[in-house]
Amino acid sequence: THTHTHIVAVMQLALHRAMRAAATASAATTAAAARRSVSRTSSHHLRPVYIAGHGLTKAERKPVKTLEAHGSEAVQAAAVDAGVSLDKIEALYAGNMLAGMVLNQQHVAPLIATALGLGPVEAVTAESCCGSGGAALRLGYMAVAGGFYDTVAVVGAEMMTHRSTKELTHALAAASHWQSEGACGKTFVLLNGDAMTEYMRRYSVPHKAFAPFAMTAHHNANTAAHAALHGKKVTPELFDHSPIAGLPSDCPIQMFDASVSCDGAAAVILTSNRAAAQKSTGVVRIAGSAAASDLLTLKSRPDILEMRAIRHSTERALKQAGLHHSDIDIFELHDAYSIMAALSLENAGFVQPGKAVEFAAAGHIGLDGTLPIATFGGLKARGHPVGATGVYQAAEMYLQLLRRAGQNQVKKPVKATLVQNIGGVASSVFTHAIVLDD
What are the φ/ψ torsions at residue 145 (nearest 5 degrees)? Predict the structure, then answer.
């Protein structure tokens, strides 16, 4: 009897422990499921984010004002355009790449906030090399969409022209993998040259075939007041016979393949208040915001013509916005080099691999084309103040959507645009779908 009682007691204890373990596991499973549910559904509860105003300083080829003067002037103009006073700005996000290296000035966001007299607002600097402006735009978008603030300023500002070409080339090379690329003399001209060489070989494309990208950019810059380059007409012959002194003979990059370095700043005011963003011609909304990255070292990638960060960020931004490629009226791409314009069109999914130069030659990228690019001159001819470029792009699409682009207005109705800002050789990519809201 004693033995039987002991066995029953042991069995009851084991059953009790098993039931407690099952209850604990069930509770853990329920909690994990709840967390997954929140994670899955949180993107559907983001607040809408509108662009209420824009500001641009002219892209300059020589130093005419300080970095903080450029930045504060752009933000002030954006606030005036938005009809908001500076004291309503709750946070400022600034894109900048080079100030720490060429000006010995970090803390660019507080620098500009101080110049504006904004007080103790959140002020954060975004650095993602040439994609810094797009990174700042994404930070501002998330701050408003996530409900942290109702009204924020996003600004991109850069100064480059006070330094020599050699100094700038060295500083810009910091966007590469320094030990294996920059320190070994692999400048961004040469890295893009490697991609261009492979493209020309793989698809049997001559250098002259890339001319439409530069021709389109310079044509559009001629009528853009804030562009750095005016009065330049690029022909296929000029494009194909303008070598850059000092480059290796096997590098195909020439002068009109490359964007122009300059100083400048651009800003947009983001808000959750639709009424505050309403203009006579509509209201502009950021419908999708995405970012992606790739291996930093170009030669480490499986295929140097496959820009995976471009593809992934494009797909994510379009999916969030509920758009398809066929819905996009303008693709404001990152044409730092003509090869990057071609690879952006292809890797973003607008044309098949190897077909971008044909697409451009057929007139599709002009203001009256099926998919306009570089509508105010792009990086090539508006200029590429690197940390500011992504915000210039957003401000320009704001103007296109509201039909305020003047002589640079795209001919067809514009309802949806895609803005893509790239850091390095597409090592980091920021893509925003910006639309005219119904």
Answer: -60, -35
**What's the length of the chain?**
438
Rounded to 5°, the CA angle 28-31-36 comes to 125
Q: Are 391 and 97 in contact (CB under 8 A)?
A: no
Annotate 238-248 with b (16+ C-beta within 10 A) or e (fewer).
Answer: bbbeeeeeeee
Catalytic residue, candidates 70, 129, 130, 312: 130
The answer to whether 60 touches 263, Cβ cutoff 8 Å, is yes
Q: Is 376 buried (19+), middle (13-18) or exposed (0-12) by CB count in 10 A?
A: buried
Q: Going by C-beta distance under 8 Å and a sequence separation of 6 or more, which residues neighbour residue 250?
A: 197
| DSSP letter assigned to residue 323 | -
Q: pLDDT per residue over 46-59, tens digit each?
A: 999 999 999 999 99
Name the percent of the chain in helix, strand, coil, to the closest 5: 45, 15, 35
Q: Angle at Cα 12 formed by Cα 8 and Cα 17, nearest 5°?
A: 150
Q: In 3D, which of 148, 146, 126, 145 has the Cα closest to residue 135?
A: 126
Task: Report phi then psi at 114, rounded to 5.
Answer: -65, -45
Q: List, in order, residues 6 or more apart from 142 with CB less than 8 Å away.
A: 289
Main-chain phi, psi angles of 115, to 5 degrees: -65, -30
CA distance 63 to 333: 27
Question: Active site includes 384?
Answer: yes
Q: For residues 291 and 428, is the Cβ–Cβ distance under 8 A?
A: yes
Q: Tell me: the pLDDT tens digits for 90-110?
A: 999 999 999 999 999 999 999
Residue 95 near residue 286 (C-beta atoms within 8 A)? no
Q: Would the pLDDT of 273 be above 60?
A: yes
Give the torsion through C-alpha atoms of 109, 111, 116, 122, to 10 deg.
40
Buried-exposed string 144-178: b where 16+ CB fall within 10 A, e elsewhere: bbeeebbbbbbbbbbbbbebeeeebeebbbebbbe
By three-state DSSP, how is residue 301 classified? coil
The one catalytic residue in 54, 177, 384, 432 is 384
- List, for residues 200-237, the tens digit of each pLDDT value: 999 999 999 999 999 999 999 999 999 999 998 999 99
Q: How far is CA 333 from CA 31, 183, 211, 280, 418, in A?
A: 43, 29, 16, 28, 8
| CA separation for the pair 94, 213 (Å, rounded) | 29
Q: How far is CA 58 from CA 138, 142, 386, in A?
A: 23, 28, 14
